[in-house]
Amino acid sequence: MVINQTTYLSAVSNNLTTFHSAGFSAAADGGRTNSDNQYYDDADFIVRRSFQQSYAHLLPCDDNPSWMKAAETTSIAKICTQQTRDYITSENVTVPWWFQTLLRDITSRAGGGVYVPWHHFYTTKPLLNFCTIDKVATTEWRKVFCELNKADCVNNTNRACNKRKCTYRTLQTMPTEAPWAVFVRDPLERLLSGFLDKCFDATARIRQGHCEPNVVFNPKKGLDNYKNIPYPNLLESIEVEGKGKLMFEAWVDIMPLKWNEHFVPQALHCDLYRNIGKYHFVGKMGKDFYFDLDRMANRFGGQLPEILNNTFGYMDHVKNENHENTGKQGSQHAKLASEKVMRFYSARTVRKALEYLSIDYVTLGLDVPEWARQMLKNETS
Fold it and tell me: What is the dihedral of CA 125, 127, 129, 132, to 10 degrees?
């Protein structure tokens, strides 16, 4: 499937050597300046260095013509990632441990929740494919596509029409030329939003089991050791329960031992890191979220504007020039993480999170937020 695999990975190795031998010197604000006098602040340096050490090793698979063809893309993307995993293992390529566990978990039988059909919604009213990503308003996007496809489930007993009598994926034939859309989110804020929803909330942590590794964060979920004895609650003795910054720091350290779909980088969903340049619409769940919804509604038309407004209530915010909120007001999942970053993040957790999520900043055109840059600068001042 991959053309010139050895040549490609050799080029990655050369790029790594070039980056690390560029003669970086420390700047007064904690940034770096290389021998060509190019300046990288601390955040950009962490992102670029981490990407070159990890995600740059992902094989391109650019010889395959089936990208952007729904189910085929999911299958091909998983196979390509498996090839990367196997090559790194067989050739003893040096990569960070958390990248090894990421490749292991997303290529497992369940695909770590990444290579699964529920990330792809589609409708013919209007004609649209949509990539939905965990912790980027997925609950609300389900409502949108259920409503768009509502007519498909009238008097229909098809299994695709669930108990709510709706389907996220139309039962009609989708033309191959149907446009694609996606919303992305700042990776640091998405990570914190997921933590608040899946880990910090003790009830959700116990009930859902998404705060992995469960052996650490949810031992009451019936996890036994090799002697069939339940694992102890490892959080009890370190007293982080309910202590925001401490618990978040512990979780960020341990989380990559078992990657959960809610925290896997966005770029790996729907194979975005290879395909985002082919998308017809890309929006961002941030301060301009409502304005991007308005832009999406105008772009695709039909019944979409009305349904988007019923779900997100964006029209009044656009009318009033509201650039503050990030999601439907009152929504359980609209955690407004941007208002909580100072309470939970530290310079240390920013550094680690930027490493884990560097592929999102490099391939999705996202900028590290100013609050994170300033937190790193304050650490060195």
Answer: -30
CA-CA distance, 150 to 311, in Å (whole number)? 15
Q: Is 48 helix (H, G, I), strand (E, B) or coil?
A: helix
Q: SS3 for 122? A: strand
Calpha distance 32→92 (Å, rounded): 30
Distance in angstroms (rounded) separating the CA atoms of residues 381 and 315: 43
- C-alpha dist (Å) from residue 79 to 68, 97, 196: 15, 21, 33
Q: Residue 216: its pLDDT value, please?
A: 80
Of the chain, the end-to-end C-alpha distance in Å amounts to: 50
pLDDT at 43 > cutoff 50: yes
pLDDT above 60: residue 330: no
| H/E element, 284 | strand 281-285
Separation CA 158–CA 125 (nearest Å): 19
* E strand spans, 144-199: 180-185
- pTM of structure: 0.86
With the CA atoms of 87, 93, 99 and 100 taken in that order, what torsion angle do they form, in degrees rounded to the nearest 10?
60
Q: Please determine, for residue 28, whether its predicted confidence score (pLDDT) is greater than 80.
A: no
Q: Do 102 and 114 meet the contact criterion of CB atoms below 8 Å apart?
A: no
Average pLDDT for residues 147-157, to the nearest whole number? 84
pLDDT (mean) for 365-373: 95
- Strands of the sheet containing 39-40, edge to edge, are 25-26, 32-33, 39-40
Both tokens of residue 172? 């009609």
> Could you give the CA distance from residue 279 to residue 170 in angstroms, rounded to a whole number?
20
Longest dimension (CA), the chain: 69
For the chain, the average pLDDT equals: 82
Sheet holding 120-124, edge to edge: 120-124, 127-131, 180-185, 281-285
Determine how β-strand 25-26 pairs with β-strand 180-185. Answer: unpaired
The closest of 42, 59, 43, 50 to 97, measured between CA atoms, is 50
**Is 369 within 8 Å of 357 (Cβ atoms)?**
no
Which of 203-217, 260-274, 343-357 has the lowest average pLDDT?
Answer: 203-217
pLDDT tens figures, 68-107: 665 666 777 888 889 899 999 999 999 999 999 999 999 9
